[in-house]
Amino acid sequence: MTDFLYLRTIWLNRSLILNATIREFQLRYRGTVLGAAWVVAQPLAIVFVYTVIFGALMGPRLGGPGGQYQYSIYLCSGILTWGLFAETLLRCQAMFTDNANLIKKISFSKILLAVMAVAISCAQFAIIFAIFLLFVVAIGAFPGWSFLALFLILPIQILLGLGLGVILGVLHVFFRDIGQMTSVGLQLWYWATPIVYPASILPDWLLPWMYLNPMFHIMRAYQGVFVAQAWPDFGGLFVVACMAMGLCVFAFWLFRRLSADIVDEL
Amino acid sequence: MTALRVQGLGKAYKIYAHQRARLKEWVLPVLGAQHKLRWALQDVSFSLAAGEALGVIGGNGAGKSTLLKLIMGTARATTGRIESEGRIAGLLELGIGFHSELSGRQNVFMAGQLLGYQIADIRCLMPDVIAFADIEEEIDAPLRVYSSGMIVRLAFAISTAVRPDVFVIDEALSVGNAAFKEKSFDRLERFRQEGTSLLVASHEMPTIERLCDRAMLIESGRLACLGEAPSICETYRQLGLAKRGQEAKEAL
Questions:
Q1: Which of the residues A41, A237, B137, B187 has an alpha carbon 20 to 30 A from that of A150?
Q2: Superfamily for B1-87+165-172+194-252?
Q3: Interface contact B179, partner A, CB < 8 A
């Protein structure tokens, strides 16, 4: 493989990726009065609903320095980062079918679409997450040094989303069922991962199975950082990192193998 | 000097009776292939000298677009080889990569980058593109307020902003007003004089006769004949007449 994981292609086209990301933002909020403020609206609504409904119930059981906001912090650290994962996955899954005409008529590296999908998801996440961080600082619950762990967890999560997303994106071209499957699957996965509820309410027999869920490790790491202000379980993260890397290698292999068939099928 | 050499080029599409057949083939490869091949193009060979213009003629579904896609590199050939040392660029459809909500200028940047130009190059080319497309006033307005003629002009201007070694056009010239058509013909003529080879697919014989020295007729995916443009165009006209006659007879 001369261009490992297409890193060279991606580097050469960095300016295209950057521009596409900026344009996507300009396009989405063009004509709205509040502009990019709408990025925050969706997660804010979810967090508000959960906090109001479950906050009083779950807050006391979590403990920690966040006080009355404890459950909100727990919730945000999971929901916002899950949002990034879901967004990456959904965008990658639809990238070839959404850009069918472009792919058929212009000769460019199709794999850049995946990188653009990730870049746009990340940019959107950065805005939401920055607001969350401001909130955490404001109530005096900033995690301190363990915050640095995010720079490890986030890349692992993004790689996991990218790997899975590209696989789904390639398969979606040939089997349109994948589109439906992805949204249903994501929904189930979301509730199968302790995001809204704490892992402690799970029955004992279920916990060992949870370790098979890569997002369990990722979410637990975020929640640990923000709620307990603790360093994550690096062993678990390492396994997920290997899994994510493996998925990416497989995804790019699959893409390379089916690249020509993708154009024919679109 | 040869700018483009095509040898034994063929393209087959896989046809599955049903999506389930594809799944079966993927999951249980031991059962053998579940698809049939449909050849859209078979055994096409030709070469194109630097500065030469070759027309591609054929009925709908004859394989013209497939041939151009293979040469442009968007689709991959099943058999044969395409050799070229220079840069191949083209225009398979006008306005590809454009977005109606973005301004003309933003679209030039987006489309230009997709075509492989660097930002700095696009900045340098911008005045030329705007002048050629003749939309000085509206360049910063969103594309949705443009007339279709303006979009065509902008698309042609950006695609031809830099002279390639081989330029491929599919039907693109059949739109736009007469004045712009002349202007784009002139640009292609100038390209040719500077050494660009043209490959022009069109239904319009006058376009082929005007631009091309030679032409090829493609029928059912095969190269039926290749020769001087006027004679091939004449053959195609005769063929069209014969076909229409046939249809008329069958209708009776």
A1: A41
A2: P-loop containing nucleotide triphosphate hydrolases (3.40.50.300)
A3: no
